[in-house]
Amino acid sequence: MVEHAADYEWRGEGDAAEVVLYATAERAALSAFEHLLPAATLPGVESPVYGAASPEGIGWVAVSGTHAAPDLVSVPTRGLLLVADAALDDLGVQPGEIERLIPHRLKEARRPRLTAAGIRGLCEAGAYGAAEDGLIEEEDLLLLDPLPGDADAIGRRAISAGSRDWDLLEEARAHAVGEVLDDRALEGLGLERGTFALVVTAGAGELGRLALSGHRERIAARSRGGDFGAGDDLPAAPAESEEAADLMAALGAAANFADGRAALLVHALRLELGGVAGDLSLRAAWRIGGIEDRDGSLAHRMNLAAAGEGEVLVSGGIVVAGTGKMSGSVPPFGVPEDSLPWEEAGLLERWAGLDPPEGKS
After folding, report:
1. Which stretches of 51-155 are DSSP H helices?
2. Which candidate, 47, 48, 8, 15, places its Cα nearest to that of 29?
3. What angle do helix axes 242-277 and 205-224 make, rounded to 10 degrees?
4. Domain extents for the chain?
5. For residues 237 and 229, what is the distance between their CA atoms, to the nearest angstrom?
6. Percent above pLDDT 70 for the chain
């Protein structure tokens, strides 16, 4: 049973925890609630389990003080906000050409190939490893700290997959800064109305999927044997177990690999668009998915970004800051209109709008 608790907020009881769901409409809430219920069966779950749902996406965060569950997380992804030192009107390129220019330029960019040893290095050093190869600037590393990760925890098949798709194009969306809602907050981001900005997304790809599925199978086998105090429906390993430690090491390695891919994409964008956009500065970075160790409690995120109070990311084409609600999580996806429902629900604060070049205001 789901009850409408407040604007854009619904609540219901799960197996071991309350479920608090933020959604744009009752139909979306009812559908999403069923997807969130397994998260409320997580052993050691700390109530409530939070979720967010819209036609553009669905995600949740479930925190446990005792167990790690691979089924409750998405493969780690890195999001970045790059800001040019020029206004879109000054670039000498028609607005509608920007989106078509980016993939064309990136296809022509020279991207270094990596051996298995290079992939392993990225899994453990992340963007710091990319910096050693000259793929990212030293000042960018302030926003790209690596996680504890072990390449041995992801397996040979995952390493091979990483070698194959390491330099595949990811996503880079071009924008012009539109409405500025908080001038003071944006002072350090270099965002002014009309400024050219890029939102970049890079994931761990097949490497991350293989690593996660491998540990899921291992933990499921132990769960079926009754060793972990978790049921068959939701395989989960005790936080102090070797299986949980290996899962965390694999997720950390996948997150670091995503950072390496993001660094490569930023490098290519700077090389290929430098003559058009000038300097592209990294202004914000956020992680989506994975498991975060917070002083012994494990926050499992499915398609949600880790963003505490005042931490910046892009949600649905809007530059926002987290409020710390929803266990320090924010939906990076918006709604068809804008991200107003997430703000009304207290999940984030809107700082500036990002207009697509075609709809530049």
Report:
1. 98-108, 116-125, 127-132
2. 8
3. 170
4. 70-359
5. 8
6. 92
Query: What is the Cα–Cα distance from 98 to 96, expressed in whole angstroms?
Result: 6
Q: Tell me, what's the pLDDT at 360?
A: 47
Residue 149: which of 178, 127, 177 has the closest Cα? Answer: 127
CA nearest 202: which of 115, 278, 269, 299?
269
Q: In this structure, how many other beta carbons lie within 10 angstroms of the beta carbon of residue 46?
A: 17
Percentage of residues of the chain with pLDDT beyond 90:
61
Return the CATH number of 70-359, one of 3.40.50.2300, 3.30.450.40, 3.90.1860.10, 3.20.20.140.
3.90.1860.10
Q: Amino acid letter at 352?
A: A
d(CA 86, CA 274): 11
The model's pLDDT over 147-182, given as tens digits with 9 standing for 90+, comes to 999 999 999 999 999 988 887 767 888 888 999 988
Q: How far apart are CA 105 and CA 201, in angstroms?
A: 17
* Residue found under tokens 């270094």: 112
Q: Where are the alpha helices (DSSP H) in the chain?
A: 26-36, 98-108, 116-125, 127-132, 156-165, 205-224, 242-277, 325-328, 340-344
For 236-253, what is the mean pLDDT?
A: 96
Q: Give pLDDT tens digits for 2-18.
A: 889 999 999 999 989 99
Residues 6+ apart with CB under 8 A from 58: 32, 35, 51, 52, 303
State pLDDT tens for residues 91-117.
776 656 776 777 766 666 666 778 899
